[in-house]
Design a protein that fits this description.
The longest helix is centred in the middle third of the chain and has 50 residues. Strand 48 and strand 49 form a beta hairpin. This protein is globular. Strands 66, 67, 68, 69, 70, 71 and 72 form a 7-stranded mixed β-sheet that branches. It is an alpha+beta fold. Helix 9 crosses helix 12 and helix 26 packs antiparallel against helix 27. Among the domains are: about 35 residues; about 130 residues, no CATH class; about 100 residues, Immunoglobulin-like (Sandwich), CATH 2.60.40; about 160 residues, Histidine kinase-like ATPase, C-terminal domain (Heat Shock Protein 90, 2-Layer Sandwich), CATH 3.30.565; about 120 residues, Rossmann fold (3-Layer(aba) Sandwich); about 110 residues; about 70 residues, no CATH class.
């Protein structure tokens, strides 16, 4: 009995060993390939054959290239192309474009592809037989040739070159003579052949829809089995073992994959469980693995003989088949979803893999193997098993915004919260939670960052400064009371010497050591005062500094900028084991050699973006985490991305490249037998398109060029590849290069060369050209002889005369058109500017401040836009006057200093807005007064200076006026305008002074203008007997020199040029006179124009009589006694000139002035018609008042000296003189823009009050990605800054507004912090405004009854939003000294009142009940 048991045991051991040996044999191929990965494909990444790398997918359907969203079959051809078949036709894909193959015409659909040993592509259609594509040639097999069914499902080729065709009705094959034959075997004649596969010995195996499997030898079926014969469920597909002949895999309707010798029964077959997959639809062997697919699931058989499902992909229906391309990327065809590509990807979206959708993340850290993620709405945690979890800490944090997560040396987790007043939260290993807030002594509850110090203490950066925590106690704080101007600390680190370096949000770096605090700013080498991160580099003994616009490092107290780094909007930096720096930025992740970066000698780098791996953008100023294994976790806009920077796999990837097509005059060019593309003789368009078959995430840079071609070709990324195009390509032999470049573009990694020959056109042949020259010379001699003989000279003279008359007629018509259009355009502009001027004069007394500032903002925008439009019209009118000969000099005596002062003041504002330097040098020996056309001199110089501002981005420009020569009566003046702008190309100099010409349009497309300014300037200079010319170096700048001669009136030297006239009073508009007894008749057919003039004269109290027609005006002149008549030139019925004639008959001496938008004619024209002069529309108020003062009797008029004026400040109060010292504010411009000192002080106060609220709105809009709201609020900031004279801030806001309108996210990301820092800095700069001049000690205590009444009245009035009554109560109460609690209440109420926050005011007053 015992011996029997021993025998059984021994047999079991032997059987077990045989089974193990059998499995080793079966899967031997797996073991030999593990650890080798010469390819960089998704299949290798999915199966773990490339260590530490993940995979991602891309779907192609009708929305991004495919004709429809169905795909039935895929094939990766040997030349690299992907063939996609479906019911809608055949598509070939090269990684860039999907090309539908429409020729031949019978290529209607595809259910199968096959590439034979001769490189031909066999296409099995669904209903039209077989199409064979062989380059430009093709063959067609249908029922006519004997095909047993027009619906084809599969192909295979034996070792003799016979191509077997599986149809829905049996099996056929095409022999080596391309003759179609039917494989006659009644057992499969009616069967649908679904799969054919060949083993390593050349034997072909097949499978039918009814579960029959068979083998073919020498074009005959030698073995055939039904599923039941083998003891199997219905066989649904078959796969040959490519390395062990005679062995096959069977897929069935069940959830088991069978493997063994073909024909063996189930008892002799190995079984591999496929659970949860069942009903196998497709088997394929790719990337060293057997892939198994059902119609809803994909997986593979791993080396441990287990089935592994392909997870985190969206294809779950209609799966038809799976294959791989030459790189090892997986391709999946779905009849319902299209095509899916699975590629290797170093960047792993761990939040998506865990099924989490966190939105914007700000911080990430590891704790006990769990991933802690700080988001905008709380703390998310991913457990070790990649499943989201929740603990006491995440519940405690709730939906508070988390900015940073840090683990200290003792395993405590520190969470920096930013909202809900949670402060700094500590999570101890025992589960206890401690919160440190301002109540506990923290500088602020808005925590930015936490760093662990050398002694284990916590260095905490907050919005209120620094806090140091040791042993759970706040041992030190450093904030504003320590002299810190900007207490928003974005980053904190500790040096080896124990000093704390704190990077701020706008004030550089503070080095804090005991009680010694030093600032490191721009004067010390920083390029920006916004410091995003400070990183210690132990190896190089330096501290890297990431600012808002550069990367720098500090060593021994010296700051050095890295100028060779290719990007400036960076966030953070990490180092791998190979001494590379990984730099996180808004564009992606840059990788550079750290030593090269320290030497500022970066010549090569790698960049990973959304186009080649990153799943989403990295969050600005976020905190990542690198573990001990080199895994870098990065906080992003839609989750957290992980990448191993120590083992980043890039692969030695060789890319297949090809000439996709060459077209000449839209005709395709084919290769000849020698592989040369023969382009025919043509001077038309040649298009050369390349295919770079890279299906990975690498997206390399590609260069295309013709060797010895007309240009250097193009360099672009593979995803943006486009065709090379040439017109008139010269004949000759060319080499077409397709090159793969390194990331930095400095090295050619791969170069494919193709031969092209362009045939010569007839006229390109030397012999033909010589003959043509002889013929042309002979013909020219003959023509000259004939022309002279037929007296062509007289004929030409008549033609020239006729052309001259036609040109003069056209020019006259143009001038007439400009005169008419001048009237039509100037009339509405007159209305707009006049009404706007009346708005700006309105008394702001008792008007809500917010409403007043909004109206003023709009009014300034209207004025600027109207003046710009008027300037364009004036240019057109000037050029018209010049061309028609009607432009004349208007010479008069003028003050030299006043002339240049008016020019400089107008340009100074524009220079300040663009942050350009503007130097003015006026010769002190210039005559004090001269005689000439000062207006035209002013226009010329303004044109030159305006151009200098337009075309200069960096640096500045200068105005230099000197006297070249002088005699007793005349002086030769030299005026020079020199800039550091873009300069002018030599070839453009001849067109510089040509009308309507704009040079270098591509570069200057964003600069407005008509191209008339310089032409008008040149003609004005010539009209004044002067000259204007230009010296320029392209890329460096230009100098325009204007030389003219002027008569001397007063030879006294000018002396030192004073830019601003201190004698001019500042303040609101004050009329020059008041004349309530004067009567002025205004005649205009446009009621709006009448309203404008009445409004402009309102302050003079002149009685204005209006009339809308010439006939009515004549009647009123007869009956009335008017001091002056203002008469529109162009009116229906009687026009202005006809009306004037009638008026002169009635009252010959009555002063009558023309109102006209047609300034082409000039003053001489109107005086010749009997007018006293003319007023141009839009009407200038000063000119209007001066004109009326000439004709109103003295006894009717009170001059401005005696006019009762509203009391108005003429200079700043003594306690406000400090405003002149505020950096960034031009007080003079502010007073001018505000309309007076009182309004200016009002505006300053309102600007200060709204900084916090506006900053919050702008920041929130930016963080939420609401670019439209962001742009609107920046536009408002621009106007508000301009009103208070903060021109630098206004300039920054203007550039940001332009970026917002252009959706330039890169510019916004790079400059938003700079703008906001500048804006917020005005809180400190203007803070003294809030200092009261009357101390509470000097005020009377508030009567208790009056205080009680005030509370009661406010409780009634605030819900009614009664602005005037609430303002009156506040003014009354603030006159008294208040108890501390009440003083705090009324201070907060006043703040809310200024912001019109009625809800906040109501909440505040209700809290007192």
């Amino acid at each position: 009995m015992k011996n029997g048991f021993k025998k059984i045991a021994f047999m079991a051991i032997v059987a077990g060993c045989m089974m193990i040996l059998m499995h080793i044999s079966v899967y031997a191929k797996y073991d030999t390939v593990v650890g080798t990965h010469s390819y960089y494909g998704g299949g290798y990444a999915v199966t773990g054959q490339i260590p530490d790398i993940s995979y991602s997918y891309e779907i192609y359907d009708a929305s991004n290239g495919l004709p429809t969203s169905d795909a039935m079959f895929l094939m990766g051809a040997s030349d690299g192309y992907i063939w996609i078949g479906g019911y809608s036709g055949v598509v070939r894909y090269d990684g860039s474009t999907f090309d539908r193959i429409d020729e031949p015409s019978y290529l209607t659909s595809s259910r199968a592809f096959f590439e034979d040993s001769r490189g031909r592509i066999w296409v099995g259609t669904n209903d039209n037989g077989v199409v064979v594509l062989d380059g430009a040639d093709s063959m067609y097999f249908s029922y006519k040739e004997g095909l047993t069914s027009s619906s084809v499902r599969i192909f295979e080729e034996d070792d003799n070159g016979n191509i077997f065709i599986g149809t829905t009705a049996g099996l056929c094959y095409v022999d080596q003579t391309d003759t179609l034959r039917v494989l006659q075997d009644e057992r499969i004649t009616e069967e649908r052949i679904l799969k054919l596969d060949k083993d390593s010995d050349g034997r072909i195996y097949g499978q039918t829809s009814n579960g029959i499997v068979f083998a073919i030898d020498d074009c005959e079926i030698t073995e055939l089995y039904e599923s039941i014969d083998l003891g199997l469920e219905k066989i649904t597909t078959i796969l040959v073992d490519p390395y062990d002949k005679g062995k096959v895999y069977y897929g069935t309707e069940g959830n088991v994959l069978y493997y063994g010798k073909f024909g063996d029964s189930i008892n002799n077959l190995d079984r591999i469980s496929l659970d949860p997959l069942s009903n196998v639809h497709w088997l394929n062997y790719d990337c060293n693995r057997v892939w198994v697919s059902s119609t809803s699931m994909i997986g593979y058989i791993d080396t441990d003989y287990t089935f592994k499902e392909l997870t985190n992909v969206p294809f779950d229906s209609g799966i038809e088949m799976v294959t791989a391309d030459y790189q090892g990327n997986l391709w999946v065809a779905s009849s319902t979803l299209g095509v899916m590509k699975v590629v290797a990807n170093n960047f792993i979206d761990i939040t998506h893999a865990a099924g989490m959708f966190t939105g914007v993340t700000n911080a990430v850290a590891l704790h006990n193997g769990d991933v802690y993620i700080g988001t905008e709405t709380g703390l998310d945690i991913i457990g070790k098993d990649n499943v989201p979890i929740e603990n006491e800490l995440s519940v405690y944090i709730g939906d508070a915004r988390v900015r940073c997560v840090t683990e200290d040396n003792d395993g405590n987790v520190w969470v920096s919260t930013y909202t809900h007043d949670l402060g700094l939260v500590c999570y101890k290993p025992d589960g206890e939670i401690i919160s440190f807030t301002s109540y506990d002594g923290m500088p602020s509850n808005q925590i930015r960052c936490v760093t662990v110090g050398k002694d284990g203490s916590l260095l905490v950066g907050t919005n209120g400064g620094l806090a140091v925590i040791k042993d759970f106690e706040i041992v030190r704080t450093v904030g504003a009371d320590a002299g810190i101007k900007n207490t928003v600390f974005l980053t904190v680190t500790e040096t080896d010497e124990g000093a704390i370096l704190a990077g701020t949000d706008g004030d550089g770096i503070y080095a804090i050591e005991d009680d010694d605090i030093k600032k490191i700013g721009r004067n010390n080498g920083l390029t920006s005062d916004v410091v995003m991160r400070i990183i210690k580099d132990e190896k190089r003994d330096i501290s890297w500094i990431v600012t808002s616009n550069s990367i720098e490092y500090m060593k021994n107290g010296l700051v050095t900028q890295i100028t060779s780094f290719p990007y400036n909007n960076n966030y953070d930096m990490y180092f791998d084991d190979n001494d590379n720096a990984w730099i996180l930025s808004s564009y992606g992740v840059y990788v550079v050699n750290a030593d090269d970066m320290e030497k500022d000698a970066i010549s090569d780098y790698k960049i990973y973006t959304l186009a080649n791996g990153l799943p989403y953008a990295i969050t600005s100023n976020s905190f990542g985490y690198k573990d001990q294994y080199g895994n870098l976790y990065m906080a992003g806009r839609n989750g957290v991305t992980k990448v191993n920077i120590n083992k980043y796999y890039s692969g030695d990837l060789e890319v297949l490249m090809d000439v996709k097509s060459i077209y000449c005059d839209n005709v395709k060019v084919e290769q000849d037998e020698e592989g040369v593309y023969q382009i025919p003789a043509s001077d038309g368009r040649v298009q050369i398109t390349a295919s770079v078959m890279d299906y990975s995430m690498m997206n390399p840079d590609v260069r295309l060029y013709l060797e010895d071609g007309p240009d250097g070709g193009v360099i672009t990324s593979r995803s943006k590849l486009s065709a090379l195009e040439y017109t008139g390509l010269p004949y000759g032999n060319y080499k077409f290069h397709i090159q793969i470049l390194s990331s930095g573009g400095g090295e050619v990694i791969q170069d494919e060369v193709f031969s092209i020959r362009k045939a010569p056109r007839l006229f390109e042949l030397v012999v033909i050209r010589l003959i043509l020259v002889i013929l042309v010379a002979s013909l020219a001699g003959f023509i000259v002889w004939q022309v002279m003989r037929l007296t062509v000279i007289r004929t030409q003279y008549e033609e020239i005369k006729k052309s001259k008359e036609e040109a003069e007629s056209a020019n006259t018509a143009k001038s007439r058109f400009l005169a008419n259009i001048s009237h039509e355009i100037r009339t509405p502009i007159n209305t707009i500017m006049g009404m706007n001027e009346m708005i700006m004069r309105e008394d702001p007394t008792n008007v809500p401040k917010g409403y007043f500032m909004s109206v003023m903002n709009y009014a300034f925008d209207i004025r600027n836009a109207s003046e710009s439009l008027l300037g364009l019209i004036n240019d057109l009118l000037d050029i018209s006057k010049i061309e028609s000969g009607k432009m004349h000099l208007v010479e008069r005596e003028y003050d030299t200093q006043e002339l240049f002062r008016s020019i400089v003041s107008m340009i100074r504002i524009k220079a300040t807005e663009k942050a350009l330097s503007f130097d003015v040098v006026i010769d002190e020996i210039l005559p004090k007064r001269m005689y000439g056309d000062a207006e035209k001199i002013k226009q010329v110089v303004l044109n030159l200076l305006t151009n200098a501002v337009k075309y200069t981005s960096v640096g500045g420009f200068s105005l230099n006026v000197s006297m070249e020569e002088r005699n007793d009566k005349e002086a030769v003046i030299r005026i020079s305008v020199k800039d550091t702008g873009m300069g002018i190309k030599k070839e453009d100099m001849d067109r510089l002074f040509t009308a309507y010409e704009r040079l270098d349009e591509e570069q200057n497309s964003g600069i407005q203008g008509t191209g008339l300014g310089l032409d008008i300037s040149r003609k004005f200079a010539e009209l004044m007997g002067g000259n204007i010319f230009c010296d320029s170096i392209y890329g460096e700048g230009s100098e325009f020199i204007f030389i003219l001669s002027q008569k001397i009136v007063d030879a006294t030297p000018l002396g030192i040029f004073i830019e601003h006239d201190q004698s001019k009073a500042s303040g609101p508009y004050v009329p020059k006179f008041i004349a309530p007894d004067a009567d002025v008749l205004v005649v205009d057919d446009n009621p709006m124009n009448l309203s404008v003039i009445k409004g402009l004269l309102k302050a003079t109290k002149v009685f204005v009589t209006t009339s809308e027609s010439g006939a009515d005006a004549i009647d009123k002149v007869k009956d009335g006694d008017f001091d002056v008549v203002l008469l529109d030139h162009m009116m229906p019925g009687l026009d202005g000139i006809e009306t004037l004639a009638k008026i002169r008959e009635i009252k010959p001496d009555l002063p009558v002035y023309a109102l006209t938008a047609n300034s082409v004619s000039g003053e001489e024209f109107y005086k010749s018609k009997g007018f006293n002069g003319y007023l141009a529309k839009p009407v200038d108020i000063e000119t209007l008042e001066s004109t009326l003062m000439k004709h109103i009797a003295e006894n009717k008029m009170e001059k401005s000296e005696s006019v009762d004026q509203t009391e108005e400040l003429t200079e700043l109060p003594a306690e406000m003189l400090w405003i002149y010292e505020v950096e960034g504010i031009s007080v003079q411009e502010g007073i001018k823009n505000s309309g007076g000192i009182s309004s200016y002080l009002f505006g300053l106060d309102l600007f200060l009050d709204t900084i916090d609220e506006n900053s919050r709105i702008i920041n929130d809009a930016y963080e939420e990605g609401n670019i439209r709201l962001f742009t609107i609020k920046v536009h408002a900031l621009k106007s508000s800054a301009r009103i208070i004279g903060a021109l630098g801030l206004a300039g920054l806001a203007e550039k940001m507004e332009e970026a917002g309108n252009n959706n330039d996210i890169v510019y916004i990301d790079g400059n938003k912090e700079k703008l906001m820092n500048e804006y917020v800095s005005f809180k400190e700069k203007l803070g003294r405004i809030k200092e009261t001049t009357v101390t509470d000690a000097s005020k009377e205590p508030v009567p208790e009854a009056e205080l009680k009444d005030a509370y009661g009245a406010l409780a009634d009035l605030i819900p009614q939003m009664d602005y005037d009554s609430v303002e009156m109560i506040l003014e009354s109460i603030m006159k008294y000294s208040l108890p501390d609690k009440d003083a705090e209440f009324f201070k907060e109420l006043s703040r809310l009142f200024k912001l019109f926050d009625w809800d906040g005011m109501e909440k505040l007053i209700n809290a007192t009940k």
